[in-house]
Amino acid sequence: MNLRYLWLLLLPAACSTTRNPLGNFEPVEAITIIEAPAAQASPADAGIVEHGRYLVGLLGCESCHTDRALLGTPRMDRQLAGSDVGIAYSNPLKQPRPGVVYPANLTPDMKSGIGAWTDQEIIAAIRTGLDRSGRQHLPVMPWPGYQKLSDADAAAITAYLRALPPVEHAVPENVQPGSAAHAPYVHFGVYQSQH
Ligand code: HEC
């Protein structure tokens, strides 16, 4: 998924209803391609970890999971460590207060990252969009495009994420449609004309 080809619009968090639904939007020039950060691996794991790093770079995980990458101003001290900028998953043009999800911290920090997840839980989130409880599909996360990752590739991504330096960074709570977001978010999509 190449976000450069999607309209990326910034919505200030506390926007109120106006007659023009685009009145509170601001177009964003986003830089979404960032080189995946280096990881610490033992010599025995170096090959698989390097392959995982290659895949994470290729599949654009950093476009969302690096703080502020969605705005084109990535925080390099929070590479893959979750985003304080969220993504609307319901239509903000119809409903001024859309549902918003915040891309998770993928570093192995035990509290704010995925350090406590099992390999199987991480692989399921990437390939099937199931969250850790095994139920809810993760909105926005482009798992349908990752469904066909081979077992070896999914394992390599997981090994790479586990080998990243842990970064403590809790992302804002997800927001249900109809509730006010307390952190900024973007909305992107392809819009079809009605005639
Ligand atoms: C278009 C943005 C986007 C891209 C690209 C993306 N993700 Fe995500 N991802 C998200 C969002 C948003 C969530 C949180 C969804 C939620 O909370 O329901 C998420 C959640 C996750 C989770 C669950 C972690 C948790 O704590 O909930 C994992 C694991 C994950 N992503 C891995 C990846 C990997 C690996 C890649 C690249 C192969 C990737 N993501 C690419 C947006 C993205």
Descriptive tags:
single chain, alpha+beta, 4 helices, 21% helix, disordered N terminus, binds heme C
Description:
By secondary structure, this protein is an alpha+beta fold. It has one domain (3-189). 21% of the residues lie in helices and 9% in strands. It has four helices and five strands. A five-stranded mixed beta sheet has the order 2-1-5-3-4, with no helix packed on it. Helix 1 crosses helix 4 (151-163) and helix 3 (119-128) crosses helix 4. The chain binds heme C. Heme C binds at residues 1, 56, 59-61, 63-65, 87, 101, 103-104, 106, 114, 122, 125-126, 131, 138-142, 146, 157, 174.
Give the number of DSSP strands: 5
Question: Into which percent range does the helicity of residues fall?
Answer: 10-25%
Ligands bound to this protein structure:
heme C
How much of the sequence lies in strands comes to 5-15%
Poorly predicted runs of 5 or more residues: 1-16
Task: Report the total helices.
Answer: 4
Overall body shape = globular
- In sequence order, what are the helices and strands, one letter per element? EEHHEEHHE
Mean pLDDT: 88
Report, as a whole number of angstroms, the end-to-end distance: 27 Å
Which structural class do the helices and strands define? alpha+beta
Strand ordering within the main sheet:
2-1-5-3-4
Please sum up the structure shown.
Helices cover 21% and strands 9% of the residues.
Which secondary structure elements does this structure contain, and how are they paired or packed?
Blueprint: E1 7-11, E2 26-27, H1 46-59, H2 62-65, E3 86-88, E4 100-101, H3 119-128, H4 151-163, E5 185-189
Parallel strand pairs: 3-5
Antiparallel strand pairs: 1-2, 1-5, 3-4
